[in-house]
Amino acid sequence: MSNFGGKKAIVLGGTSGIGLATTEMLLDGGAEVIAAGRRECEIDGVECVQVDVLDRAALAELFERNNGFDYLVNAATGGPRAIGPFLEMDLDGFQNSFAKLWGYVNSVRLGVPQMSASGAVVLISGYPARKWRAGTIAIGSVGGSVEAFIHLAANEISPVRINGVSPGLIDTPMSPLQGDERREYYAKGSAQHLIPRAGTSKEVAAAVIFLLENEFVTGTIVDVDGGAIVT
Ligand SMILES: NC(=O)c1ccc[n+]([C@@H]2O[C@H](COP(=O)([O-])OP(=O)(O)OC[C@H]3O[C@@H](n4cnc5c(N)ncnc54)[C@H](OP(=O)(O)O)[C@@H]3O)[C@@H](O)[C@H]2O)c1
Question: 228 lies in a domain?
């Protein structure tokens, strides 16, 4: 059981899916948690704030208000992503998929100067960064940029640590599909993986918690993907 007593965490995108599971685990460990998203939210024991990660002024105000905070997790998707064959892809859609990277960069640039020197940051990339899968070139390019950013920024923000988690196919509210259609989507999408099922938000959040707790890890990426990238 983690002990986050006395720690303050800000989880951007902490109101759904992987971010919400992280919010709940931090709370269970005794942390004071602020969860942010664009929409209103209500989570027992958590301060919910409405912030768009692309709104730098609002982010700066959030961080300043919580000066000295310990943990920054950013799991915000940022906005719509372009999915489909590259040669048919709408280029504005491809470009807009990078909202996730800009949200991450904004939060690290504006958040780290307000964090405790023993603080830690975790960002979420995604397995298409290192594994080709039909239709995912835009999100893979974004994920690859997120991972490069983590490796490089680790040098500049030390002693604050920064790491990433790269999830495989995870069953979260990101997919709007319901019922049989949803089951088929996850079954088909994971059929070739070594662990042929979708992962859960909790399985990914457990890696986020590891990276926040372990003070000897920085600049790296933990894959939580059911073996997706080695097949
Ligand atoms: N699920 C997967 O299979 C999978 C696979 C690989 C990587 N990932 C990555 O894992 C991360 C979390 O995904 P998820 O599946 O947990 O998604 P999710 O359930 O859709 O949750 C996304 C969260 O981000 C918030 N958000 C989105 N845009 C935002 C913005 N501009 N400003 C502030 N908050 C924003 C959402 O709240 P609001 O809508 O209220 O803003 C929500 O809290 C993402 O980076 C995603 O790319 C997911």
Answer: no
Would you say residue 231 lies in a domain? no
**Å from CA of 15 to ligand 1 middle:** 9
**Considering only CA atoms, which of 172, 171, 163, 170 is closest in space to residue 222?**
163
Domain containing 157 equals 8-223
- Domain membership of residue 44 (yes or no) is yes
Using the mean position of ligand 1's atoms as its centre, give its distance from the Cα of residue 77 in Å: 4
Tokens 């504005």, residue located: 92
Condensed to tens digits (0 to 9), the pLDDT of residues 31-47 reads: 999 999 999 999 999 99
- The residue whose CA is least distant from atom 46 of ligand 1 is 77
Asked whether residue 1 carries a pLDDT value surpassing 80, the answer given is no
CATH of the domain at 98: 3.40.50.720
User: 78: which residues sit within 8 A by CB, 6+ positions away?
Assistant: 53, 54, 98, 99, 100, 101, 102, 103
DSSP 66-132: TTTEEEEEE----S----S-GGG--HHHHHHTTHHHHHHHHHHHHHGGGEEEEEEEEEE--GGGTS-
Q: Is residue 12 part of a domain?
A: yes
